[in-house]
Specification:
2 domains; single chain; 8 strands; Signal recognition particle alu RNA binding heterodimer, srp9/1; four-stranded mixed sheet
Length: about 140
């Protein structure tokens, strides 16, 4: 039996990180349960204190194909390099200048949404196709590939 995967991201501000990843992945913030127009209404009805309303969030693929991304609140800011990161495959099939132009365009879009560009590695004609390493609004690294 196959398994599904959920990706979990730690964050100080889950709502902000969820909005970023929804835009970055072409996902949407997960809708509140049936019968509620907003998460605030649902959480209040469930008896969750207001100070915990931003303790978690999730983004989902509107086509139902990609994994759910769950964002959970943690008290501390990121403190070190990720041991696991996402590669956003934004230039499949493209090579050299065309590939890097597509990566640069996506880098600009994501920077406008709050990401930070960390560094670029250019194609080397052998093993390296080229990529850009970035960080989300809370410093979690990911690559544009």
């Amino acid at each position: 039996m196959g398994r599904t995967v959920q990706i979990t991201i730690d964050a100080v501000d889950p709502a902000r990180v969820a909005e970023f990843w929804a835009e970055a992945l072409g996902y949407e913030v997960q809708a509140p349960p049936s019968g509620f127009d907003t998460w605030e209404q649902a959480l209040t009805a469930f008896g969750v204190p207001p100070e915990l309303h931003n303790s978690r969030s999730a983004v989902v693929d509107p086509d139902g194909v990609g994994p759910r991304v769950f964002i959970q609140q943690v008290p501390e800011a990121k403190a070190g390099k990720n041991r696991l990161h996402l590669d956003l495959r934004v230039a499949p099939g493209l090579v050299d200048d065309e590939r890097m132009a597509a990566l640069e365009a996506e880098c600009e879009r994501l920077t406008a949404l709050g990401a930070t560009r960390l560094y670029r590695v250019d194609p080397d004609g052998r093993m390296e196709a080229g990529f850009i390493t970035m960080a989300d609004p809370e410093g979690n690294e990911f690559c544009l590939d």
